[in-house]
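Input sequence (381 aa), recorded before submission:
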Amino acid sequence: MAIKEAKREETQNAVTQMLEEENRLLKETVAQLRNEIDRFRSPALLVAELAEIIDRDNKKMAIIRVPNGNKFLVEVSSDATKLKNGCSIIVEQKNLTVIDSIQEGTKYNVEQFVIIDKPNVSWEQIGGLSQQVRDIHEVVELPLKKPELFKKVGITPPKGILLYGPPGTGKTLLAKAVATSTDSTFIEVVGSELVQKFIGEGAKLVKEIFELAREHAPAIVFIDEIDSLAARRIDMGTSGEREVQRTFMQLLAEIDGFNSLGNVKIIGATNRKDILDPAILRPGRLDRLIEVPNPDKDGIREIFKIHSAKMTLEKKINIDKLLNQMKGYSGAEVRAVCTEAGYFAIRDSRHIVKESDFISAVAKVKRTEEIEGEDYLHMFG
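Predicted structure, token format:
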């Protein structure tokens, strides 16, 4: 009897200990959940930019700029440290009191958002653009290679140029070729992505892109689709439109900050020169305009010769007939014809490309162009 009583008591003690341990764990879990709920209930902090620190009535105050562009005069927490003009800060949402600066992550790793390259494109790889090559040689290549020549003559070369014309005519190729000839770092930026991806931070990113160009000088900053940033200014209604304008103004400020005879040049490219803001084209900015049109028949002949040079062609090909069929084609489309003709030969297990392959390729490229044109009209018509 005594043994049974002892075993029963031992079992009850074990159950009691187990329940106490389980109760302790449940209390800890409840406490953690309450802390988590309190954390979720606390308001989020706002990230802003510190414009200026001032003393007012012997009190430390700050002028801050919030993401929508508005400025406020606010108080500064006594715990805020390492504040300096232009830095990113966190502020309380209700009264915008400055809590602290953001010590890390205030600067983009800008190299993730641009294409940095040392291109290997020679002038010989460009056909049908002899006048454009000559202009770029004068206004971009010569100032980078022989700045003393301009000092002796007493003239100031343009800081940058604008290449304009239809898509596929060789604007990017020209920019890469001049970077190659001057042994410059080629920094390519797409204006539309700059606007779409970095709403709220576009101006900062522009500033860092040009800092990167200075670090990698001599450098060519190539801004494709510049019309998405530098279109004519209108009454700014939405926050997105205001952000585009701030980014554009930063771009103008960065261009103005360069020396005309310095070792960084800016090349803009657009298909829509007609919508550009005159401010970007005034003297001292991108004031040299170079049109890059679709090639004429002789230009198409040169481009065709360049892209078919390494191809094995049959002996009897009527080049003039092909050129007539490619009338109005851009340089990119002529290259596409050569590529497609090669594919037609490969499908027939041949290494020799025939005239019929080129005729089929012309028809395919033309058909693709017509489909894209119909899609464009469907979207915007």
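Checked by second reader. Residues 46-101 form a domain with the OB fold (Dihydrolipoamide Acetyltransferase, E2P) fold (CATH 2.40.50.140).
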